[in-house]
Amino acid sequence: MIIASAAIALVLGLAATVAINAHSYREYNDWTRHSYLVEQQLLKTSLALRSAESALRGYLLTKDAGQLDVFFAQLPRIDKLSAGLVRMTADNPPQQARAKELRDTLQSRVKRMRNMLTQVHRGDRDGALQLLHDQISEQVERPIASQTRVMHAVEQQLLREREARRNQSAMLATWFTLACLLFGLTLVISAVILVIREQRIRLRADDELATAYTQLAQSLEESRGMADRMQRLHMLNESLQSCRSIDEALRILPPSLEDMLPDTSGMVVLINASRNLAEKAAEWGVLWLDSETVFAPDDCLALRRGQPHPAPDARVKARCAHLETGQTNHTDATWLCIPLLAQGETLGVLHIQRLGSMRPEEYDLAVTLGEQLGLMLGNLKLQETLRIQSIRDPLTGLFNRRYLEVSLSRELLRSRRHERSLALMMLDMDHFKRFNDTHGHDAGDELLLQFSALLRDAIRAEDIACRYGGEEFVLILPETDRESALKRAEEIRLAVAAMKVKHQGKLLGNLTVSIGLAMQPPTGGEPEALLHAADQALYQAKRAGRNRIEIATVPDPGSMPKDTD
C-alpha cells in the first residue's frame, strides 16, 4: 500500500511537475512573442515615419502630387501604430510611459512636417527644405532613435529574465525526473517522453523566433540601404546645384551614377537646340547592349511616351530603335530608358543597362535619379540662358555695353600688371541713319547683323567685340601695340568697304565705317578716359570726311576733359 501510495504520489508529483513546467513554458513563449510583437511595432512605426519624411522630401524637390498622397497616407498609419504600441505595453507601466513619450515625440514630428507643407503653400519652399534637412539630421533624429533603443533594450532585458526563470524551472524539473528513475522504469519512460515532447515544442518555437529575428534583421538592413541611397541622392543634388553650367554637371555625373547604381552602365543623352537629334553627353561603364550615340528623339520609346520604358510590369517590352539588335554576347542584359523632364520640357534621356533583371528598389532609385537629374539640368539650362541674355546684345549676338564696362576694367588692370599695351577701337557705320530711312529698319537690322559677323571674323579669340549702342561698336584688343592696332583697323575698314549688303535678294549699296583708335598710356589709365579718347578720335574721323581712322592718346586721369553732351 505504501509503495502503491508512493507510486501514485510520485506519478501525481511528476504529473504536477510536468504540468507546471509546461505552463511556465507556454507563459514564457507568450511573453516572448509579445516582446517581439512590441519590437516589430517599433520597427513599423520607424519605417512609417521614414516613408512620410521621404515622400515629403520628394514632394518638396519634385512637386510630385503622388509623393504628397504617400505622405498623407503615412500620417494616420504613424498615429495608429504609435497608439497600438501604447496599448501593447499596458502590462508594463514604465514601458507604457516610454511608449507614450515616443508617441508624443512622433506627433510633434508630424506637426513639424505639416508646418513645412504650410510654408510651401505660403511660397517658402527653400525654408521648408531647410526644415526637412534639419529634421532628418542627427540632432533631430536622436530623440526618436534614443527612445526606440531604450524600449528595445527593456524588451530584451525582459526576455533574458524570463529565460533565466524558465531555465531554473527546467533544471528543477530535470532533477525531480532523475529522482523518479529510482522508483520505476515506467515513470522514467513517461517523464522522458514528456521531456522530449517539450523539447520539440521548444525547438519549433526557437525556429519560429529565429525566423522572426531574420526577417527583422532583413527589414533593418533594407531600411539602412534606403537611408544610404537617399543620402547619396542628396549629395548628388548638392553637387549638381553647385555647378555653373551643364558641361560641368556632365563631368561629375558619370562617377556619381556609377557609385549610386553599382553593376550598371549607361549614358546621358541630351536633345539638341533644334529638337531633331539626341546626342550622347556622358557615359559610365561599358555598355552590354550597343546603342547609337546620335539618334532621332522618336527612336527612344521613353522620349516618345514621356515616361520610363520599359515599365517593371510590362508584359511586352518593345525595344527602342536606338539599341542595335544582335550586337552583344550578353543575352541576359536588361535596359531602362528614363526621360529627363523639367518644367514640361524634355531635355534628354537617362539610359541604364545591367546584367540580369533590375530589382524593384533599383528601378525606383533609377526613376528618382532621372527625375532629379532632369530638374537639375533644367535649372542649369535656364541659368545659362539668363546669363547669356544678361551680357549679349539680342540683335547682333555681340557683347553688350554692360559687359564692355566690366571687361574693359579687367583688361586694363591685367595690361597694367603685365606692363603690356592695350588698344581700344570705336567704330561707327557712316550714314547709317540715312541708310535706315532709305531701306527700312529691316534692312538696317540686316546691315547690323552682317557688320557684326564681319567683326567676329576679324578679331582674335582673346579680343572682345561689343555693341556700344545704335550703329556704334567697340573692340577691346589686349596685348596689341599701335602698329598692330592700326593694321587691324585698316583691314576692318577695307573689309567694310568691300562688303555687299543683301536684303530680300537685293543689293543695298556699299558702306563705309569710321574708326577711332585709343591706346592705353604707359602709366595706365581709367576705362572712362580710354573710352572718351576713342570717342573723340571717332568724331575727328567723322569731321575729317568719314571712312578713315584716327588715333588718339589717353590723357592722365586727372586731365580728362568733361563731357559737355
Provide structural commentary.
The protein is α+β, with helices and mostly antiparallel strands and 565 residues long. It contains 14 helices and twelve strands. It has three domains: 237 residues, Four Helix Bundle (Hemerythrin (Met), subunit A); 142 residues, Beta-Lactamase (2-Layer Sandwich), CATH 3.30.450; 159 residues, Reverse transcriptase/Diguanylate cyclase domain (Alpha-Beta Plaits, 2-Layer Sandwich). Strands 3-2-1-5-4 form a five-stranded antiparallel sheet. It has a five-stranded mixed sheet with strand order 7-8-6-11-12, with helices on both faces. The protein has a two-stranded antiparallel ribbon with strand order 9-10. β1 and β2 form a beta hairpin. The C terminus is likely disordered.
